[in-house]
Amino acid sequence: xxxxxxxxxxxxxxxxxxxxxxxxxxxxxxxxxxxxxxxxxxxxxxxxxxxxxxxxxxxxxxxxxxxxxxxxxxxxxxxxxxxxxxxxxxxxxxxxxxxxxxxxxxxxxxxxxxxxxxxxxxxxxxxxxxxxxxxxxxxxxxxxxxxxxxxxxxxxxxxxxxxxxxxxxxxxxxxxxxxxxxxxxxxxxxxxxxxxxxxxxxxxxxxxxxxxxxxxxxxxxxxxxxxxxxxxxxxxxxxxxxxxxxxxxxxxxxxxxxxxxxxxxxxxxxxxxxxxxxxxxxxxxxxxxxxxxxxxxxxxxxxxxxxx
Length: 308
Ligand code: APR
Fold this sequence. Notes:
CATH architecture of the largest domain: Alpha-Beta Complex
Structural class: alpha/beta
Number of strands: 14
Shape: globular
CATH topology of the largest domain: L-2-Hydroxyisocaproate Dehydrogenase, Chain A, domain 2
Strand content: 15-25%
Largest sheet: 6 strands, parallel
Distance between the termini: 37 Å
Bound molecules: adenosine-5-diphosphoribose
Helix content: 40-55%
């Protein structure tokens, strides 16, 4: 039997994710949103692309959580973008209500699913989903590191004029301007990047990576990124559904790893059929550890506001 994925939120990230999922035939997809007609219209449009693209998976748009029943995996993208006059805390509280409310409904119908959270502010919203679901930590995963690392890898590949496939590297910490790319563990075809790019150029790439989301928002004006975010989500789904045991940077609930306890923060994890199958604790220099702690403190400030 085919697997089933629910994507909550039929906006830019949700609909593009649904598109990529059916294109890769990873599962049947249910697209759910609070807006009436939008998920139904996008779902039908995607279904009707099947004969041309050659996919047999089914996709349905809906407003009814009963349609999401028995999903193997759920991608949470529902939420509000920041509007003029809205503080960060206002956005935080508004999206907290959305994520908490929708996760409770999801869990009711799919108690065994794996959750991938995408709604921002990412780390705090993943923590919200973790608390609201009551799931074990291996089944609640935040999508940020794969996206941030993809941006980082893009800029390095561009700077060196090499294939993006040759560039490996990851990003630690929260999904915000305190995130911590780690050049010491970044390589190009096995060669440490620190031997290929001067420090100033690497620093500029790290700064650009940290501001990667804002760079897109500044261009789009009325929305945020969705092509790279949806690609990142689908890489995580593929790792889980195909039990690839892939090492990817994801937002995970730490219980003492890296000296951080009771908080979702981005770290390298092994993704397989059981979700997060291992958290990899790599050795950090005191400076890297301090940067990670600072980033975790920034996440903690947000989770304290919403009390999760
Ligand atoms: N239940 C279901 N859907 C909801 C709810 C709710 N309670 N509240 C809002 N939504 C839906 C909106 O109707 C909208 O269709 O969530 C969707 C969000 O879509 P967009 O506004 O297009 O936002 P998008 O660009 O997809 O980003 C979604 O991902 O990357 C993050 O920062 C981004 O938090 C944002 C999320």
